């Protein structure tokens, strides 16, 4: 083809691949293709540069390949991308904001002007807001254990709190209460993972599945996972070969997630605390 007399507006003979990209074959050959006068080794340097940009887009878009490390050899640390540095900084700013929240004022915003902390609620809330871990809060029924994860999600946007709930009926009630409080809350659905919800409710059996672990890794890789909470945590002691055996595996899974851990219960007797830990 005579490139000097080629008419860019005449699409006859142009490659469909080039046309789909928004330009003709002439432009593709002159600008996007390899230049004829490239110095030796320049093509490889450009490929490495473009590969790095492509990988950063994969991480940003949360493709599975980004979670698997792009083929990094075992024992080698993958260099952090610019997206990871940004994600870490955003998470740090969330934690910094959390530490300076006026929990009394936010409590009244969320629950009404007459709302006050009850019992051990304020002490436990302070521990959560300042990032302490692990936290075991033993509070009587009606003292507001769920506020220990609802209020942090209400105060600071952008992160995700995973709440492990043993009973589906409790999940439905918590989801309703969160929505009434204008907190984005969803029940875990493996067919439709939720990337932006402030609170994700999941059963213990789902929490130890491979699909959920992939979801957790995605939250961690984007620095969105702020904490994991287990409600009614005393049920772990009831677990056995014949009753919800996967409950005992939760502790090890939660530790691997590398985030703040909060355990809530109303019925953990003092004599059972050592066994629970």
Characterization of the model:
The chain is α/β, with parallel strands linked by helices and 277 residues long. The protein has a domain at 101-276: Rossmann fold (3-Layer(aba) Sandwich). Helix content is 44%, strand content 10%. Strands 1-6-5-2-4-3 form a six-stranded parallel sheet. α7 crosses α8 (147-155). The longest helix has 19 residues, at 42-60.
Characteristic key phrases:
6-stranded parallel sheet, globular, Rossmann fold, 277 residues, 44% helix, alpha/beta, disordered N terminus, 6 strands
Summarize the structure.
With 277 residues, the chain is α/β, with parallel strands linked by helices. It has helices at 16-20, 25-32, 42-60, 64-67, 82-99, 103-111, 121-129, 147-155, 168-180, 204-207, 210-221, 250-256, 273-276, and strands at residues 135-138, 160-164, 185-187, 199-202, 225-230, 260-265.
Number of DSSP strands?
Answer: 6
Please mark out the parts with pLDDT under 50 across 5 or more consecutive residues, or reply none: 1-11, 34-41
Topology as a string of helices (H) and strands (E) = HHHHHHHEHEHEEHHEHEH
Q: What does the largest sheet look like?
A: 6 strands, parallel
- General shape: globular
- The helicity comes to 40-55%
CATH class of the domain at 101-276, anyone?
A: Alpha Beta
Query: What is the CATH superfamily of the domain at 101-276?
Result: P-loop containing nucleotide triphosphate hydrolases
On the 0 to 100 scale, the average pLDDT is: 79
Portion in strands: 5-15%
């Amino acid at each position: 083809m005579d490139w000097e007399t080629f008419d860019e507006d005449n699409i006859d003979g142009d490659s469909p691949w080039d046309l789909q990209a928004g330009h003709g074959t002439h432009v593709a050959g002159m600008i996007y293709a390899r230049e004829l006068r490239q110095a030796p080794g320049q093509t490889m340097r450009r490929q490495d540069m473009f590969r790095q940009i492509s990988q950063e887009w994969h991480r940003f878009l949360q493709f599975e390949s980004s979670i698997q490390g792009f083929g990094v050899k075992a024992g080698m640390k993958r260099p952090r991308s610019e997206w990871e540095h940004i994600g870490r900084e955003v998470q740090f700013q969330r934690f910094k904001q959390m530490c300076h929240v006026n929990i009394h004022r936010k409590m009244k915003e969320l629950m009404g002007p007459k709302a006050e902390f009850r019992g051990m609620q304020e002490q436990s809330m302070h521990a959560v807001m300042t990032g302490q871990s692990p936290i075991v809060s033993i509070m009587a029924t009606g003292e507001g254990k769920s506020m220990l994860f609802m209020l942090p999600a209400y105060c600071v946007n952008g992160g995700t709190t995973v709440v492990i709930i043993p009973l589906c009926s409790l999940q439905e009630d918590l989801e309703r209460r969160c929505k009434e409080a204008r907190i984005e809350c969803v029940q875990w659905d493996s067919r439709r993972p939720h990337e932006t919800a402030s609170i994700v409710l999941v059963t213990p059996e789902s929490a130890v599945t491979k699909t959920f672990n992939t979801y957790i890794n995605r939250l961690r890789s984007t620095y969105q996972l702020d904490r994991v909470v287990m409600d009614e945590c005393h049920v772990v002691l009831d677990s056995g070969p014949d009753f919800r055996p996967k409950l005992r595996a939760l502790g090890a899974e939660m530790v691997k997630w590398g985030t703040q851990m909060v355990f809530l219960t109303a019925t953990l007797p003092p004599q059972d605390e050592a066994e629970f830990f």
